[in-house]
Amino acid sequence: MLSEFSLIDRYFAQRARANTRRAALGIGDDCALIAPAAGEMLAVSTDMLVEGRHFFPDVDPHALGHKALAVNLSDLAAMGAQPLGFTLAFALPRPEERWLEAFSAGMFELADRHDCELMGGDTTAGPLNLCLTVFGTVRQDLALRRDAAQPGDDIWVSGTPGDARAGLAFLREEWPHAPMDAADAAYFRAALEYPQPRVALGLALRGVARAALDISDGLAGDLRHILVRSRVNATIDVDALPVSEALARLPRELQLQCALAGGDDYELCFTAAPQRREAVAAAAQQAGVRVTRIGTINAPDAQALPSTQPIIAWRDGTGAPLNLTLQGFDHFHAD
């Protein structure tokens, strides 16, 4: 029977020690020691995934291992940071070898792809709960912050937001009136369970983009974080939103709900000066990621109070206003 320390050593510590290159001192001591390169800052982010809130109890453990790290790497991507390593703390109801083998494989496959090493962590018995902290490095003057958007900036988005939300709808059987064929359902499910953090794009956008974040709680809700921090407004061309071929086969109202208010996409939303459009296109090509210009940053009303909430003006392709009421995901007000 696996003990706490034997499961850590067998499924996590042995592989982590074999790949230790970035940490000055990794697993095996009371703390990891991390030495960033000269002139660089540490970028640190933590995410928690709770069974029944962020993933289904019967989720494939390989997919869960991938996603647990992917959502953290996505935060580094949004900051334009180079991944260094991560810590893993989790509660597990019981130590099942097949589950641990698949979970650790999914996690380490993604970690190896981004040269991001496991540096420490903790485990205990309890309801399944995962908490990862990821570390990266970035020069302070190149970090992509939420408070740097300026009036006149273009608003861009990577990939095709909305696919993950459609995957959730498929698993919940939410849309009996809009059936999906098997291929589309598999595509949506993969988007939900295997998000791809846009690390290469974030790195390529350093010195090109101004403000950025990742879309974890829906484009409409997450964009507001940039607007609030930068004290600006925005206009979005809804018809410019990129949608996948699979999502385009759903009714238009479902497309918009998924693309604008869905969550779990982990694409990047960022702003850049119009003069940087060619540089944005070059960064996207370098990263091998599709990017689409979907709107513009606007100056706030001169009479508005500092506490006034930002305004997103939704338009169609002709510039006509659309009456959309959209809200991003809220962990304390979610069904």
TrEMBL record:
- Record's catalysed reaction(s): thiamine phosphate + ATP = thiamine diphosphate + ADP
- Its EC number is 2.7.4.16
Segments forming domain PurM-like C-terminal: 150-300
The record's section on SUPFAM superfamilies has: PurM C-terminal domain-like, PurM N-terminal domain-like
What keywords does the record list, in alphabetical order?
Answer: ATP-binding, Kinase, Magnesium, Metal-binding, Nucleotide-binding, Thiamine biosynthesis, Transferase
Stretches assigned to the PurM-like N-terminal domain:
28-138
Q: Where does Mg(2+) 4 bind?
A: 30, 45, 75
Q: What does this protein do?
A: Catalyzes the ATP-dependent phosphorylation of thiamine-monophosphate (TMP) to form thiamine-pyrophosphate (TPP), the active form of vitamin B1.
Record-linked HAMAP family: TMP_kinase (MF_02128)
User: What is this protein called in UniProt?
Assistant: Thiamine-monophosphate kinase
Instruction: Please tell me the species this chain comes from.
Output: Paraburkholderia eburnea
